[in-house]
Specification:
Layout lengths: L15 E6 L2 E6 H4 L4 E4 L12 H12 L2 E5 L9 E4 L12 E4 L4 E7 L3 E7 L5 E6 L1 H6 L1 H13 L6 E5 L9 E2 L1 H11 L7 E3 L5 E3 L1 H11 L7 E3 L14 H4 L6 E6 L5
Parallel strand pairs: 4-7, 5-6, 10-14
Antiparallel strand pairs: 1-2, 2-3, 3-15, 6-9, 7-15, 8-9, 8-10, 11-13, 12-13
Length: 263
Amino acid sequence: MAGATAMDTVAIPAGFHAADAPWGRVLVCAPLAAVARHAFTLRDLDLHADRNGSRRRWDAVAAWLGAQPPLRRARQVHGTAVVHAQGDAPASPPDGDIVVAVDHGLGVAVQVADCVPLLLADARSGAVAAAHAGWRGTAAGVAARAVAALRELAGTDPADVVAAIGPCIGPCCYEVGDEVREAFARERGGIADAWFAPGADGRWQLDLWAANRDQLRSAGIADGHVHLARLCTMTGSASFFSYRAEGAAAGRMCGAIRAGGPA
């Protein structure tokens, strides 16, 4: 596995820190770590499914979390479908963009290379969720759906949830067209206006950080329990994979979390 990523190329915000892993470093949200073992991986571990050794790398993440391998994932389709991880892992990941684990010891993960990796944990029950939020999923309300899934599958009270939004493309770099703004207006109404700012040449700058944060708050998570890394994968491409910066050559990172508490 590759050597450590130079995390000193980006300013890590308060509430987050870099931690050592066997392959290099991971990003950890301290308030979430008090509730659940988790990690946002960085550029030094390529988890792209089509790359040689990807299964071994995914298993290394599971081992670092102390999770029963394999990590439970979904075939991400930019929607809001929920996969309930339980029992034996299926031969092929089912379609979905939210993976929930209630059984202690199971780990769930989503892979990203600009999209939002969203991790949630129920401080009372130990249930966890990982969600993948691109613009389509964000417009459809994937963050709020993840909170609802924890409530449905684990009896979670949103007041007990701690959430972290990991590195993803930031509002500085995420330029979109009118069709994206119109899709948000159809799905989310006037509240979506706050997530767009005028960009160059009639385009719009979309703030996925704020959009997902606001949806989590609207779903009942306390303001102080939603934590944003505020790290842009495109401007921080020395530390993160970015599809917009690198195209098809981009690797994949993950947000991964284990059910059952912080130990």
